Predict the structure.
Amino acid sequence: MIYAENILLCIAVPLLLSIIFIKGDARLFSASFLIGMSVCLISAYISGFLDLVTGMGVNDTSVFLSPIVEEIMKLLPLIFIIVLIEPEDKTMLITTVGIGAGFATFENCCYILTFGVESFSYVLIRGMAVGVMHVVSLLMLAIGLILARHFDVMSLPAVMGALSLSATFHGLYNLLVSSPGISSAVGYAMPVAAAAILYLPFRMMSRYASDQ
Amino acid sequence: MTILEFVGQYTYLAAVIFAMFRSVRLITVRRDMTSVFFTFGVASLLFSEFYWIAYEFIRPGTRMPFAANEFGEWALMLLMAETLTTLMRGRPKPPAIYLVCSVLFTAANTALWIGWTGEWLQDILTGIIMCYYLYRVIHMLYISGAFAKYDWTAAGIGSVVLLSLQAVIFFVPESFVPPLDLTCYVLAFSGDCYFLYRAFTAFRKKAHPDICVALSFAAEIWAEFMLYMSSGAFYGAALIICAVCLILKLRSISMEDGKT
């Protein structure tokens, strides 16, 4: 049996080593990537616990509860960074993308090693869907937080608003792909479509952050 | 799903999409906290609506367990409450009795929800957030002077009668339930029609923006409570009222000068 912790160790050690030798944005991205993978592992523990407590079953837990758990867990490091170091927008965006990419990579690795590979096209679809979805949902969260910070409205309702956007988006994806047919096709296409829509505000925000 | 439910669902979705586009434009024009909170709220509502529609499509006829859209609804209420808060900075607070009434009204509603669904945790959390939102709406009604003394009295008596009737339904024989249920619906819908009438009159008479905001939000929160207590065609009708209220809220927020 392959344990998730072993996979984390295998990927984390080279990354940890690389952090020593690189600097600047690359170091920040690698560190965020590591945080994303760790957050994914902790989220899996919590979802497993909730599955046992609520008795909803593995499928319903992953459709209805996991998106909430995962988005809250991804929010925590971002909130921690905002409160502790008050980063610039550019730093925040790099951290966000790193955490999202780390989360998606670790989840995909565990999934493929546990359940195997049906076909190459399935791997591609999964990579394009789950991989992009985690980055996009976290970007939504970060753009919401950055907006709230710029308008000086950083409060519980603002954080809750940003969290609700990412959690509902994630939940919607999980719900759509849980059923075969047209709904899964829509679900698989949703992250890429959302990434395309988000690209414009992301570019605008990155340019704005560089001008600061 | 009844025809009215179907119509209500898609009318509401259309209203939310319209409000989303308009409120994003409001941010770019005004760049103030009120429009940011309002837009965030509408965005949460939009995602929540998409989730509902997807759920109805994938698992029709089943009750939705605790899911991500619940977050959207909580966020919507918190953000709408915060939208009002930005308009009330530095204004006087209402007497404590208003807070007590908000708590009692929401607590009674929460007890009924638990009685109907049995979802303790979910209903209590929704109740707490709804209580905060209701208090903010009452605060706005108080400082804007939108309600005269007889309005407060009528709202109080109406609420007590409605909640008492709903509670009585749990204990009466089955044959008494349909007429009592119908009476509750008539009372609830009459209350919201009154709020809507007052809001439309305020807009028509070009009343102070604060009054329009207070009355539109009051109509909307009453419609929210109605949504929680309705089913079938009545639920669809409540959704249509919610759609109207959302547009009124957007219009009233646009009237504010955004000096926050």
Chain A touches chain B at residues 56, 60, 63-65, 67-68, 71, 144, 147-148, 151-153, 155-158, 160-165, 167-172, 175-176, 178-179, 183 (CB under 8 Å). The mean pLDDT of chain A is 86.
